[in-house]
Each structure stands twice: as structure tokens, then as C-alpha cells.
Design a protein that fits this description.
24% strand; four-stranded parallel sheet; alpha/beta; Rhodanese-like_dom; tRNA processing; 7 helices
Length: 260
């Protein structure tokens, strides 16, 4: 999606990687973002980094370069999942850099995406995978997100927060019956944790959409899409459609809380 007609660029990013010094990284990262006049939210934990920031187009490039190649992280973010989009107005009110136990909360210490995750499937290959017989298509997002849009035929776990996914899996998924699972989420991070959890429980084939729904909406033509509805995003744009176009929904119309 072009940045030419927008004054605000948005970068969403994450990587599971060992950051034993994550507490010491907080202030340098906050100061660097503030110096570029960025706003948004960044989470740091021993297991990695997760965030979305927005600012002037000329500020986002040096920010992304520092994460991937700068001295702050010392080259550790060498597999950073990074997606860009635009906003008609600044989608965040302030800058927050927070320390967390997990960068996405599941509450399962056996789920370690830095050690093992499911098989990544690029957006261009996703339609073929989910059309394969005996494939369980699983939406790992929260119920209010699913209600706004999902892939045709996807199972809704009916959860209020991602931390409940492991309970859903224990009650509803069986390695003997569900031998091939294809899962998806907004940007890919929840699927990293969810796939690691299922693999640890003995599921044989677990696939997940690389880059998440956002990458699919960016790359797959609407005429070929299996997506229906809008994709909820955790900022003031609220929802995006194909081409990552803003849908212009008002958050107060949704009547829900947010789950990071």
C-alpha cells in the first residue's frame, strides 16, 4: 500500500528471541523512539519483542533499521517479522515501552517459539493449504475479532483472550483426530505461541499463515481471497480490509476490551 497520500506510516513487528537484558533495553529503546517522534506500544520480555509504532514516513525507516541492524539489539533481531501500513491520522495517543513476562500471553512455559514452531505458509500458498481435505482451519483470535471477519470455514475457539487458547485446545482438539491444523491470527505472533503449544502436546502437522491476516490482505488479490469481513487491529484505525485500507469503524461501536 502506498505511503504517498498519507502522513503517517505504521510499523508492526515481533520476534521471539532470547533477550536476557530486556530490562536494560527499555530506556534506550524508549528514548530512540521518542527522538523520532514515534507513538505506539512496544513490549519487551525475556522471550522477545512485540510492538506497533507510527510516525512520519521518514522516521519509520531508521527505526526499523535500528531494530534489525543497529547496536541496540546487537544483531539479535535477525528474523524480525515486520509489516508496514499507513494511517490517515496518528492512530496512537502516546508512546509506551513496557516490560512483560510474555510478549503475547498464553501462560504455557512449554510453548517456546524460539525452539519450535509450526510450518510457515506464505500468503500465496494459503488458499491451497486450507482447501486440502482433512485440514482443520483454526482462528486463534478472540471472539470479538472473529465476529468482525475470518476465513471461510474457520473454527472459532470462542475465547475472550488468547490466554484461554490452551483450555480450548485441551477440550476441543485431539492429536489423533486433528492430524493437520492450519491456524491464523492478525499478524502471526499468536500463531507462533499456539503452534508451539500444539506441537508440545503431540500434534503432528501444524501450519500457520506467515505474517498473519495482514500479510494475506496485503498480498492476495481480493478476487482470489477466502477472507470475509474486516480485520481488527489494536490501534485507533480499528479495522483494515484488503490492501490494508482503513475501514473507518469507531471503537465505541464495538463494545469490547482489547487483548494484547
Amino acid at each position: 500500500m502506498s505511503d504517498r497520500n498519507s502522513t503517517t506510516r505504521v510499523a508492526a513487528f515481533y520476534q521471539f528471541v532470547a533477550l536476557p537484558d530486556y530490562r536494560e533495553l527499555r530506556e534506550p529503546l524508549r528514548a530512540f523512539c521518542a527522538g523520532l517522534h514515534l507513538k505506539g506500544s512496544v513490549l519487551l520480555a525475556q522471550e522477545g519483542i512485540n510492538g506497533t509504532v507510527a510516525g512520519a514516513p521518514e522516521a519509520i525507516d531508521p527505526f526499523a533499521s535500528e531494530l534489525a541492524h543497529g547496536n541496540m539489539f546487537g544483531g539479535r533481531l535477525d528474523n524480525l517479522e515486520l509489516k508496514f501500513s499507513t494511517a490517515e491520522a496518528m492512530p496512537f495517543g502516546r508512546l509506551k515501552v513496557r516490560l512483560k513476562k510474555e510478549i503475547v500471553t498464553l501462560g504455557d512455559e512449554t510453548a517456546d517459539p524460539a525452539r519450535q514452531v509450526g510450518t510457515y505458509v506464505d500468503a500465496a500458498e494459503w488458499n491451497a493449504l486450507i482447501a486440502t481435505p482433512d485440514t482443520l482451519l483454526l482462528d486463534t483470535r478472540n471472539a470479538f475479532e472473529v465476529a468482525m471477519g475470518t476465513f471461510e470455514g474457520a473454527v472459532d475457539p470462542g475465547i475472550k483472550s488468547f490466554g484461554q487458547f490452551k483450555d480450548f485446545a485441551a477440550a476441543s482438539l485431539d492429536p489423533a483426530r486433528h492430524r493437520r491444523i492450519a491456524m491464523f491470527c492478525t499478524g502471526g505472533i499468536r500463531c507462533e505461541k499456539a503452534s508451539a503449544h500444539l506441537l508440545a502436546r503431540g500434534f503432528a502437522e501444524v501450519y500457520h499463515l506467515k505474517g498473519g491476516i495482514l500479510k494475506y490482505l496485503e498480498e492476495v488479490p481480493e478476487t482470489e481471497s477466502r477472507w470475509r469481513g474486516e480485520c481488527f487491529v489494536f490501534d485507533e484505525r480499528v479495522a483494515l480490509g484488503h490492501g490494508l485500507r482503513e475501514r473507518g469503524l469507531r471503537e465505541q461501536e464495538l463494545g469490547h476490551g482489547r487483548d494484547e
